[in-house]
Queue: 3 jobs
Job 1
Amino acid sequence: MRVVVTTEYRYAMTPDGRVWTTHAHGYDVWRRYLTAFDEVRVVARVAAAPQVPKTALRVDGPGVTVHPVPHYVGPQQYLRQRVPIGRAMATAAGRDDAVILRVPSALGSLLAGVRRRHGLPYALEVVGDPYDVLAPGVVRHPLRPLLRQRFATRLRRECGSAVAVSYVTADYLQARYPAAPHAPTANVSSIDLPPEAFAPGPRVVRANSKRGHTLISIGTLDQLYKGVDTLVEAVAVLVSSGVDVRLVHAGDGRFAGHLKGLAEARGVADRVTFAGWVAPGAPLRARLDAADLAVMPSRTEGLPRALIEAMARALPAIGTAVGGIPELLSREDLVRPDDPDALAGAIAGMLADPDRMTVASARNLARARHYSRDFLEPRRHAFYQSVREATDRR
């Protein structure tokens, strides 16, 4: 049986027909489905590229193909391309295919509609919350309140109609978007940390007045939902109060220029480094190992991969109390979003207490092990098998 999986990641296709990504969802992610299915078809936006993008990962490979959807960015480009997009989605999956939609997703919702119209089953992997993604301060759009309600209602309907649902959180998304009473459900993160992702042991942090502290944050800058602007403001508060900190942000996107301008306006441009996209694996681990504290100032999250990767390197962390972050960090390490003063206070409090940082390092490393490959693979396979069986029954 073939499984068709939608994703919101955007890919590039070189003239030889191979497909590439500059994000973490390459071939190693999609081949996981081969434990229960004979073939995987990934449905994604694909743009033509004259050559392999720098630091790109291959997407397609043995058992994994890509069904290209016309490339677009944002609602205006989507509207201009809606007819060819609709045609591509209508042919994305056959009647006998299993279908797993990674939602919230425009492509996922389109394919869910196609399946419902033909009385065909689909399953879901719920990886985020549209209600939080469209919260005030996250997305700037005049129709944001209307879209917020519409997309949240749509996701609840999709979960209620799915033959099986997997959630990346333990409780948070399940409460907002429940599955049908008899549908199999699972709590399985899409994170897949190999043994080398983990530090050999916790950090022992000692007071050191001879150098400052390095903060690290990770995430896309295509939208402001990662809260990096709040973190830049917090760095300015810390520096003005005499705390010697520097921030390194790994990630790129269309708001990078805006955030660099904010750092200049607040007088901390020399203390904030925008490192751009950092390749997963050893390059990212090197960045994490060089830092003293991870900061996840998000306005919305599902279950943040970047935070778990930082915790796997035994980094103490401060995060906001949104989405699945409270399932990862202890209460004393959480602050409310959109509050630079509170975030600065939490960072300063952690950095000033080496014993607390040592305890947080050990605790975070232990929690990150729940997202190791060995821990998650059996649960992930069980979910895929339940989707296959539910598809056979329907």
Job 2
Amino acid sequence: MNKLGEHAIVIGASMSGLLAARVLSDFYTNVTVLERDTFPGADVPRKGVPQGRHAHGLLARGSAVLEELFPGYGGEVVAQSGGLIGDVANDVIWIGHNVRLANSASDLIGLLASRPVLEGHLRRRLMRLPNVRAIEHCAVLGLATDPLHKSVTGVRSCAEGKAEETINADLVVDSSGRGSCSAMWLGAFDYPSPTEEKVEIGISYMTRTYRRRAADLDGKHGIVIAGSAPNWRNGVMLAQECDSWIVSTGGYLGDDAPDNDEGFLKYLATLPTKEIHDVVAKAEPLTDYRRYRYGANLRRRYEKLPRFPENYLVFGDAICSFNPVYGQGMTVAAEEALTLQQCLRGGSNNLAPRFFTVAAKIVDIPWDIAVGNDLRHPRVEGARPVMRRFINWYIGKLHCAATRDSALATAFLQVVNLMMPPSSLLSPEIARRVWQGNRRPVLSIPSPATEARRNSVSP
């Protein structure tokens, strides 16, 4: 393959940065990843990934893309670190709208392992490529630019213990995450900043890791509980390497779970089902409690900018970051990597507008899923047009029918796993099954939450 340039730089060694670097390695003679953090010697949490100590899972679409870019990646995580590959629709319990979706075999294959393991394996695979290198302890201070030609020519950086230097590049990709400085850097270069869309949710969750026993959860690989009325609390318990469970639970707008045994168990008992509570009550803790707070869904509309410099891109969470309880971030980054690959096959000219246009369409779906579901909460502020209210009502009806209809459950999980567009749930066949399913009683799950909901509407 003919190379598009001698050198590409990726700012940030997050999952998205590693994926971007993998794609760039096919098109540039050399690729350098600049990371301000230190890479740990073992697969343990690192300072630069604050959410790395909390629950992660790779959705089916993300798992498929990583296999495409790094063949054998999933098997390597399983064989070398004890991760688990499983059927998302059959091996995981899904609770939404206070009901349990029917389990059944599907082709939705996901990968379960801790964030440090997922990232560590990806980083090691990337660093085996002969034209890729990483520089740790390296802070990017700004962009090196050519104002005359309105292009980026590299970055101004400072590695630990060294003076500031300029590293030249034919392409710079900002994958530094939600805290990206791109808007500020563009402003210094006399380019407009992107408009931002923000939906404040005030999500906070508490996480702890426990010993996993074979009989826990009847052998399932995990359980995911989406927040719903009356208390809007969510919870997740996922199998991890080393026979462990990672458990995270929390709520919206400051509804924090306590960081002590008694309070944590009481909080878990208020979820729509007590499966997580019952495992945690008997399990051996392996870590202390850890809290993570996330203020708002945030999207930067780079695709709407009238001007953008040549030889520069923004990527991953630096474009859009979602409520982390939906587990979409890594998969969206994987999809963006494939988009970058396709754009680079068309050459480097006019790269940013081409990439941002397609990336916006990728982001539209998970953004609508996350924000649409968050706006079900009555105290979350945001526009609720008629169509959004209808979709939320319809998805509730679909959940009710999917307590018995595994085909409906799988159709919904195909959307959640970003394998199918949300519009697929409005097909005549799916709508017919939803209508038929709501003519039968819902298979309810007795719990404090559902009892409170029932009592709240009793005469």
Job 3
Amino acid sequence: MRTARRVRLLAATATATAVAALALTACENGTGTRDEGASPAAKPAANATTPKQTATTPSGTSDAGTGTGKGAGGGGTDAGTGGSGSSPAGGTAATAKAPGTGRGGSGSAQVLCNGSDTAVTVQPLSRPLNHMLITVRNTGSRTCYLTYYPVLRFDDMQWVPQPAAETHPQAVTTLAPGESGYAGVLLSAADGSGDGGTTGRRLTVAFQGMTPNSTGGASATPALPAKGVYYDSSLRVTYWQQDRNDALDW
């Protein structure tokens, strides 16, 4: 009986010792006891205390920059473009503008005076000496413009008489139906200083367009006196004038 009680005492002591050892181990590693059937706690991320910086883009756009804005050639408008399908120049062609008038027309091209809508005559004058007057009368039904100066050619002449710069008018000569415009011609030098003098038998008067030296339409061939017209290298012409006296007073 005493032996059996001793055995139980030894067994109890051994159990107590084992429990004490287990408790001591748990205190040393700080984990305590845990349920063997429970899943292990998730390990925190190394930088869990710092929120992740996520890039944000404006509403309706993407990171690639292809949202609503368009690049070159896209549907959006770029700096310097006209938009709405317009051309860089504004989308419409400019109408012809008569030089010196400040008028751009009203959607239709201006009418030029030329050999098809005028009557052209020439008249040699004794005063001023060695001069000739060219008269152009508008025979059409619309107002026309006499631009710059007449381009003269006697017979097969290979050079073009130059205009007298001092005769440049303030505004382009404008002829209503029935009105006339004028140009004066210096045929030869009064002091005989010109050279290459000859007699012209046929005269062609050409008209200019809205830009210098451009064609203005049909030419005219006004009749000359039967004896012809003498001219030399001094041959010059005025710009077209609204007033007859302006064509001769130079």
